[in-house]
Amino acid sequence: MTLSSVAIRRPVFTVMVALCIMVLGLVGYSRLGSDLFPDVSFPVVAVSVPYPGASPAEVESQLAKPIEDAIVGVNGLDRIRSFSREGLQTTLVLFTLDTDVVQAATEVRERVSQARAKFPDDAKEPIIARFDVSAAPIMTYVVRGQGSLSLLRKYADDKIRPELEQVAGVAKVQITGGAKEEIQVELKRERLEALGLTPGQIVGRIRAENLNVPAGHFWEGSREITVRTTGDFQSIEDLRNIIVANAQDGSAVRLRDVAQVQDGFAEIRTRAFLNGAEAVTFDVLKQSGQNTVEVAHRAKAAVEKMREKFPPGMDVELIIDQAELIEENVAQVQHDIVFGGLMAILVILVFMMDLRSTIISAIALPTSVVGTFFAMYLLGYTLNMMSLLGLSLSIGLLIDDAIVVRENIFRHLHMGKSPMQAALDGTREVTLAVMATTATIVAVFLPVAFVEGVVGQFFRQFGVTISVAVCISTFVAFTLDPMLSSRFSGDPNAPDRFAFIKAPFRWFFGELDATYGRVLAWSVRHKIVVLVIAFGSLFSIGSIMELMGSEFVNAEDRAQFVVEIELAAGTSLEETARAVKPVEKKLLEHPEILTLFTKMGPDEEVNKVQIRILTTKKQVRTDTLEDIKQYAREATSVLKGAKVAVTDPPFIEGAGTEAPIMINIRGDEYPDIERVAYEVERILKKTPGVSDVQVRYSPGRPELVLNVDRQAAADRGLGVADVAVGLRAAMAGAEAGYFRRNGDEVPILVRLDKEDRMDARSLEMVSVLGKNGPVKVGDIARFERASGPQVIERENRQRQIVIWGTPVGRPLGDVAADFQPEIAKIELAPGMSIYYDGELRLMDETNTNMALALLLGVVFIYLVLASQFESFIHPVTIMVTLPLALVGGVLGLFLTGRTMAMGAMIGIILLMGLVTKNAILLIDRAIERVREHGETPLQAILEAGPERLRPILMTSAAMVLGMWPTAVSNADGSEFRSPMAIAVIAGVISSTFLSLIVAPVVYLLFEGAKDRFARLFRVKRAPLPAPAE
Known about the structure:
By secondary structure, this protein is of the alpha+beta class. It is built from 37 helices and 30 strands.
């Protein structure tokens, strides 16, 4: 007993099963989150080791190399990146995507612990933690109010940040702009010298006086009384009056005698500007693996609740909201799904001219789509671009099985059979064909398991969603459709009130059948001509693809981009602000630039600037985003000698795609690396279509290097770290505790007066405490002027310099084809290498993985078809449509001006699973006629062609029109979605018309070859397999 016969005989059970699928789907949909793309969590562990006073070169040799040597053998390791800065070593250990980051962190901790013995004695304890490289702000707010920026920052830091960081899914809140309060203790060097004091001793005295110390407890009757001594400073005057030493005459020396104590603000290393005006802003970052939209909604709700408590005149404004972009993309794809479904249903109505048949077939759509949501929920997927694209592009496909089944039942009804018998016979007759088409779709996406990396993470949700949806649609086609056909089919011989409307359509379809019959008859008589014309077109694919160009992904117009500026090393924050001010003014003059959000001194690198530019939406904009980017480049041309890069927000946060072109030069010695880096820079600058070329390396930062005479220092009981820490306390300052005021803790910063730390001579006079008293730095060390890298970057245990570039006006693949051969000619010193990173690397990975997926997809299709048809030959007959579809898909992309990017490649792989459907319907029917009616292969194919023409055209038209809204959309994110749909539409159209001609010809050629083989070797032909039950 077949599935369809059970469904026909048990209608209530069948309806309940369908309703169960719908209910579970709706429950799953209600619990699905929304995101832009599938969550790709990159397993990264960070190792940080402070090394006070050490130069970047010392940090590299003493810390970076031992750490790298220790962790190089960790399981699942992908790359090691090291950043050696003054006084700090940071090592990022990047693992493959399938690595358990918790286990990896444990193993890294063990390895670093073993290497700890090799660290310098002055190095601090390593800090090891998971690091989220994909952590990026999902929202940015600006704080507005009548008070000063410092007061606005204080309120944001004290009130807003703590509450937002309690919101589920929020990792942290970063505040930019304004200044932090601090109590400044500015020491007078001459007075300290006269008293034999050092800055370190002053810090110690302040800490000792600013204590709460418990003294114990006693009993007062039955009550326990705690005793404690409170030494908190109650006022600035208390701090000024503490005794720091005794003079020679025995009188007390107070802090006010050796220092100026005052309220002030910490040195500003980062500033924020909104549309040219200085502001206080805060970014909300989500935790790794959390859903962006859900976290954003919770954070917005928390801000709205806090808004009620804001002081008068203060407010916050949301200026950047990534959740809005995600919701717009999801809403657009959902719109495409609904509209595409309606178009596909219209196709059924036009072809079948029967309202009952249209309704019965159309039921497959909502059941399949809604049922898929439950599977997505179970698998932990979200409503993102990839999963929804899978549904959007398969809308026409989901109704195909129902069309084939219903059309065949409809044909049997017109033979005079009862609805029950017509449903049984009609479904049984196409069971093999429908199962084969569904199996080929699933088979195409089986190779997803072999696709690795970021591309595999993206492709997996797309492929699984389509596979689940088509499996549900096949189940519905074999159960609900035949059951409804057996119960609700009308009398085909009854008078039709709309016959006058249908008559022209019937005449058209009759003429179409007849015309196709004549074309088919001509084709089978001229087989060689047909094959030459069909397969001759294959030779054009290579030329067309060369003209198209290739990229990782098509550039998206998100109505925003980023301008990164790096001024000369050593430029102060104030000078940076002055230099960038004219640039901001020029940018704001553009009528389609809405918002400028500027960060000066990101990561406290005061010579760097990031400007995020928000523009009007592309649907209402007169200039293209590329035009506005070029305007921004021209606006920054006033910054002579500055490095400028204009980039889009990363397609995938954390994937290492800060720039489309990233070329890493690796080696052991900087002179060799610099030589190659500047040669690569020269090649990129002369390559047409490459802009924003910059070497991400600043060797010339001015430095004043303190060289300590270790023996002289040791004689006085001092180590290098003692000198370095003492000098740092005198210059940058040392925190000597906190001053508690109105519930706030204000840091107390102690350092030399500004006049005593202005030049090398002043610094030589700084005293540090030795074993016999204060020792001047100049007595045990000397200063030298030098220049050196601010950061030494290493990757995979070698030093590295990175060169950035951006393709403008030409595809990434084309410009890479120009500069890569030139770069390959550069002579490298022993041990050096050149590594391509960024979108260039991801593009190569995509091409390799997609080629593998395509090849394996073809293999799996053959395996499935051979199993279904119990034949080694017939699958080849059917698969002849694959190259024909490829021609159409590539030509469609070329004619619409698209490049061969990830979206287009996914569309072509999907196409491989779709286009075999037509040939399966045709060849399966021909085999059935040979088996059941004893016809010759020629007679069978000439009869099967017109008989299967209408369902073939219906399914193809349903697929084309179902994907049409996605193909022509100009909504946000359409640059990624549209090429997929275009490739599928063009491939389906070309393969439909060519397969109706070419597949019969190939079928007859193979059948003739089999007959000749049998006669030649007198082999008895095996009987044809029985039809599937």
